[in-house]
Amino acid sequence: MKKRAISLGLSLFLALLPLVFLLVHPLFSQTGTAVPPPTTKIHPDLLAQMQADPNGRIPFIIDMAQTSSLNAAEQADVINQLQQTAVSSQAAVQQTLNTLQAAGEIEQYRPFWIVNKIAAAGSAAAINALAARPDVAQIRPDAQVASIKPPEDDPYLTLLQVTAVTTGPIQSWGIDRVGAPYVWNGLGIDGTGVTIAIIDTGVDWQHPDLIDSYRGNLGGGVFDHTGNWYYTAMPTVTVPFDPLGHGTHVAGTAAGQNGIGVAPGAKWIAVSITDEYGFIYESDVHAGFEWIMAPAGDPSLAPDIVNNS
């Protein structure tokens, strides 16, 4: 009788085991109702990454289903509308992300308001769980573009480098080609009063042809980088730099001194969206433009022109 009871209990346990799995698995709802794997919401390229490395920490972007209807005229009001949409629609998803992070399935995540998206890195199970949510429209790879390499063979970069060891004005052939002197001298317009943002690999802010045009240069040897510089890959790096040279090249073209910049009277600020190797993730581009709309959280510091070459 005792053996029969043990056998009956074991059989009952084995019969209930699949139901227990359904109740605790993240792909099933709290009521135990099965939710089909949401493959239609997961981009095919991301699915391939999940299959290749199911336990890895895969970078991905969550596209929220809700979007913001922008009907404001002022930039501050536009920002407010975008932020309200993001806060209200992302709250529940961020709770799920926190739970998955506590379980070790999500490495980190970064919400955005400039676009209603969340960038994260996590496992295949985490991606499936998030895609099962009705407030998520799609989950895609956090796309990475090819490395930006320094323009080593560019004669204009050589000209920029020459200015670092020489004195006096040096004229770029491009300045004459676009007729900039006619605008400077004939119309009296040289960019004065305009702020240009350089979204690129960063800027060597101490370059002798750029330091005077830097908005963070307050004069008298005093510099303030807050609201004038942002590094998306590592926001704790609070002083401008450029490990690759490309952004410095671009800043020189825009606002360089000594005859190399088309608008020498303009001020520049900068955002680096590349890592130290020159790779750019989509999430860092979103972070860069989000900062540009309100540098250091202040819309009044937004630039007049954005160069994203």
What does this structure look like?
- It is elongated, with a radius of gyration of 26 Å.
- Mean pLDDT is 85; it is low at 1-36 and 159-168.
- The N and C termini lie far apart (81 Å).
- The strands form four sheets. Strands 2-3-1-4 form a four-stranded antiparallel beta sheet, covered by helices on one side. Strands 9-10-6-12 form a four-stranded parallel beta sheet, with helices on both faces. A two-stranded antiparallel ribbon has the order 5-11.
- It is built from nine helices and twelve strands.
- Helices cover 36% and strands 17% of the residues.
- The protein has 309 residues and is an alpha/beta fold.
- The longest helix has 28 residues, at 75-102.
